[in-house]
Amino acid sequence: MPLIPVVPENHSHVLAEFDCLDPLLSALRLDSGRLKCTCLAVSRKWLALGTSAGGLHLIQREGWKQRLILTHKEGSITQVACCPHDEDFIAVSTSQGLVAVWELQLERRGRPERVSVSWEHRGQSITALCWDTSTLRVFVGDSGGKVSFLRAGSSKLGKGSAFVIFPVQTVTTVDSRVVQLGYQDGRLLVSSLSRCYLCDTDREKFWRVGNKERDGEYGACFFPQNKGLLLGQPPLLYCARPGSRIWEASFNGEVLSTHQFKQLLACPPLPLITYRNEPNYNPMHKSPQSVAFPKLLYLGDQNLLTWTESAIYIFTPQNGQVLLWSEVKDLVDVAVYRSELFCLHGSGHLSHLSLLSAERCVERLLRRESWSLAAAVCCMFQHAVTISRARKSVPIDRLEHLRSQLSSSTDLELIGQLEEVISKLEPLDSASSSRRSSISSHESFNVLDCGIYRVISRRGSQSDEETGSLINPSTSEEERLKEFSFVQEDDQGDHGKNSIFSTSKRSDQGLQFHLPLSFRPKPPRIALQAVKDSVSSFVKKTTEKINTLQMNSELFQRPEFREGGQAEISATASPYSEEMENEVYDEISNTEADMQELRLATERAISQIQDPLVLLDPVCLGEALLDWLPTLERILGPAEDYINTTDSAENVVSNGSPPEPVRVASPKPVPPDLLTNLTELATLYTELSCFRNQNEQTLGCLTFLRRYFFLLDQERVRRMCLLCYQEQPEMKSSFMEAMLGPTLILKLLDLLNLRKFAMSFSRLYEKHGEAAVRSFSQFYPTITPADVMTMAQQSHFLAYLDNLVQSRAEEHRLSFLQSLLESESLRQDWLELALTHDAPQHCDTMTPDGQPRWHSHCFSWGYGRLLALLIRLPADFSSKQKMAETCRSHGYWTGYLYLCSELQRRTEAFSTICQLDDISLLEEPDGVEPQTLDEWKLLIQLSQQCSHAADSEQVTGVNGSSWSNGSADCGGKISPENLTLMLARTAGPDRALEVLEDCGVQLVLSPHSRLVCELLRVTEKRQRAMIQTMLERCDRFLWSQHA
C-alpha cells in the first residue's frame, strides 16, 4: 500500500458509509431495471421510498424492516415528505398531479387511510412538498409556479374532525417553477428559478428576498438559531446564488451578507470513507469552483448541506468556511435527518452516509473491525487523532490493538505510518490537559523516559538546525488567514448597508464578559513583516497625522477664533527641516524596540490566560494582567509630567478637582495584530477591576478607562457600564465623555451620514427638550436607550422609550422591548419610572388603608401601553412578585391583576376585582375568570362583603369627577345576582342555584334573571338532543363501514 497523504489541519470531519442498503433494495425488488426508486424522505422512525410503479415503501429504520407499502393508481411517486411533528402522517405526490396525505394509524393498529387529497395541481409536475412545523398542513409547489396547501383531517384533532373535509387553498403563484419550499415559525419560503419569496401565511403578506434575479435551479432554506447564545433568536434564511455564492438574510427577508465559496472550494475533496473502496486523497489543489447549488438543507449542528450530480458540499455559514466537500457519483436526491444523509443515485441504489468527526469515525470503524480502513483514517487525519481530547474516543490501547491486527506482509507501510501516529499521541491525563494553553493546537508531544516532554511541531520547524523552515510555516499561515473571506463582488448593490459583515457582534451578543480563549501567537515572519511595514510608513503617517490633528482642532474651534488660526496652521503644515527628520528616525528605532517589547509581554500574558486554571481564577487572572500592565504603562502610557499633574481619577474626583482627560488616540502607531491582542487584554483588565472592585490594584478601573480608552472594546465597555452604573456612576460618565469626543464623533458622522445632526446632538436636547428626544427613536440602534437615559431627564426618557417601542409592529413590540433590556434590573427601574410619571393621583386609586378604590382601574395612565408590555416581559418568579407589589403600591390595578393571574394568586385577584366592582374584569380575554366551583363560591362571598362598601363610596363621591377620564368604558357591578348568571352560562342554571344555596346567600332573582335561566335550560336541552343525534348517526356510519 502506498503512503497515505495527510489531510490539512483545517479539516476535522468526514462523510462515512457504515451500512449497506443493497440487500434492502433487493428484498423490495427495487434493484431491477423495471422497478426503480424515484424519491425518498427520512424521519426519526421511517425511511420512505417512492417507486416508479406508484408504491410507497415505509422502512422502519430500527433494524431496516419493511412495515408498510402504500399503493397509488395515479402514476409514479414524484415527491414524499414525512411530517416532522407527527410521524403517523406522510404526504406524497404523483406524476399526474395528485397530492395525498396518509394517516398510518399504527398506534391504534388500524389500516392506513388517505385523510386528505388534492387535485389542485392536476396536469402539472409537482416539484416540492413541505410540512407545517406545528399543524397538519402540507404546502405544495409545482412546475407552473403555483403554491397551495391542504389540511389533513384526523381523529387526533378531536371528535368529528376526521369527517371534516378541508378545502385546498392557493397561497400564491410565482413567476417560474418552484425549486424548493421551507416553513418555519409561521412563514413559508418559496425558491423559484428566478427569485426567493417569503410569505406570512397567517397575514397573507409577501416579501422578495434580495433585489437581483437569477436564472436556474437554486435552493433556499431556513437556518434555526437554537444553540447556545443564539437560543431564542429568529431563524436566518440562506438562498443560493450563481457563482458558488449564498445570501444570508434575516427572518424578515432582508439580505444581511453574501458568502462566497468559490475560492474556498479550490481545496482538494476529502475522500468518502466507505467499505466499497480504499480512501484516496489527492493533496493537489484544484481550480476555484463556480457551482450552482440546486437545494439547501439544514444539517446536524449548525451546518448547511448542498449537492450536485457529482459532489456533496457542507458549509458552516456562521464563520463562512467549508466544512468539507466530497465527490459522490450520479447523485439525484438527498434526504437528511440530523447528521445522517440518505442519497439516491441515478442507477436507483441508495447510500447511507454519516457526518462525524474523524476520531468518532475511527471509533466506529474499530467497533466494526474494519482494521485497514481505520488505520488509513488515523494516518490521514493525524491532527484530529493525536490531540488529547481524542483519547475519549480512541484510547492508546485501542490504536496499539489496531496495529497488531494489521498484516505485516501486506500493510507494512501502513503499520509504519500508524506507529508514527501512535508516537505523537497526547495522553488524556497528562500535563497537556492542564497546560493546553502553552502548547499550540498545531503541536503534539511525547514523554521521554527521563520525564521530559518533547514537543513535536507539525508546522515544519522541528529543530534549531532547520533555520530555513521559517519561510514555510509563515507562508502556510498567510494562506490560512486568506481562507476566511467573505466576497461581496457585485451583490453589494442588492442590499446596501446590510451587506456589512458583523460576525463579532453576533458571537458576543448576550455575554457580560468576553473571555478570549483562542489566542494564537503569530509566526515570526509575520511579526517581523508587521514591524517592517509600520516602520517604513512611519514618516509618511507622521506628517499626515499632524495635518489631520490640526484639521480636527480647527473643526471644533469656535467661529470667532478660526480666522486667527489660519496662519498657525499654514506654518505648522510646512515641510520638515533636516533636524526634525533626524529626530524622527531616532524615534523610529525607539518605537521598534518598544513595540517588540510590548509584543513579547502581550504574548506572554496571552499564553498565561489561555490556561483554564488561570482564566477561571480571578486572582491568578489579575496577577497575570498586573504583570503585563507595567510594560503597557511605560510604552503607551501618558508622560511622567502628565501623571504627576493628575492623581488617580478616583482620588481627584473625591477632592473636587477635574479628572484627567480621556485618551481616545494612541500616542504611538501600533501594528494591527498587536492592537487586537492589546484590546482583548485591556478590556479584560477593565472588566475584572470593575466587577471585583479591588482598591488595592496598581491602577483603578476608572483611571485605566480614561488613560487607555483607545485600546478598549467600546461595545463591551458600554455593557459593563450598564451593569455597574448604580454602584459606579462615574464609569458611565467617563464612557459617555469619551464617546462624545471629536475622534469618535467623526467616525459616527461617517457611519450615519448625518454630520449636522450628530454634531448638535446635545444642543438639540438643550433647546427642544422632549420633542428632540422623541425624534431620536428613528436613529436606533446607533442612538440607544442607554445613551438617551444618560443625557435626558427621566420623564423625557420615558417619552423616547414609548415612542421607540410604538414605532415597531404590534406583534414585535414585546420581543423588541425585551431586546432593549441589557440588564435585568432595568425592567424594574423602567416599570417604576412609568408608574410615577403622568400617572393618576395616589389618593384616586387607593384608599387610606391601601385598598383599591371603586372603579379606580378605569383611570388612564400616560404610559399605559408601555406598562402593559413591561409586565408581560418574561421574568423569574421573584421578579414577577416584585413587579406585582410595585403595581399594587402605585395603584396600577390592571397590571396587578395580570401579575396575580401569572403568579397563581387568584384569591388576591378576586378580592381586588370585587373591590373595584367591575364584572368586565372577569369576562375580558385577559380577565381572571373562576375555574372551579370553590372559586365561584369564594367570589360570591367576597362580592357580598364588598357590595356595601362600594355603594357607600359611590354615594359619597370620594373620587369626585376626576375618574370620568376613561370611566365610560367600565362594566357592570359585581353582585351575587350577576355572578349567578355568569355561573349559569358556564355550568348551567341548576348548578348555579345550588352553589348559591351552599354559600348561604338568600337571593331573589329579578324577572330578567329568571327569564335568562329558563332560556339557558331550554338551550341546554336542545344541545344535548343534537349531540345525541350526531353520535347516533356517526355510530350507524361506522357500523356500515365495518359491514
UniProtKB/TrEMBL annotation:
InterPro entries: Beta-prop_HPS5-like, HPS5, TPR_HPS5, WD40/YVTN_repeat-like_dom_sf, WD40_repeat_dom_sf, WD40_rpt. Residues 663-1014 form the HPS5 TPR domain. It is found in: Cytoplasm, Cytosol. Keywords: Cytoplasm, Phosphoprotein. SMART domains: WD40 (SM00320). Residues 15-345 form the HPS5-like beta-propeller domain. The keyword Oxidoreductase does not apply. GO terms for biological process: developmental pigmentation. GO terms for cellular component: BLOC-2 complex; cytosol. Coiled coil: none annotated. Its main location: cytoplasm. Belongs to the HPS5 family. May regulate the synthesis and function of lysosomes and of highly specialized organelles, such as melanosomes and platelet dense granules. Regulates intracellular vesicular trafficking in fibroblasts. May be involved in the regulation of general functions of integrins. PANTHER family: BLOC-2 COMPLEX MEMBER HPS5 (PTHR23287:SF18), RUBY-EYE2-LIKE PROTEIN (PTHR23287). Component of the biogenesis of lysosome-related organelles complex-2 (or BLOC2) composed of HPS3, HPS5 and HPS6. This is Hermansky-Pudlak syndrome 5 protein homolog. It comes from Amphiprion ocellaris.
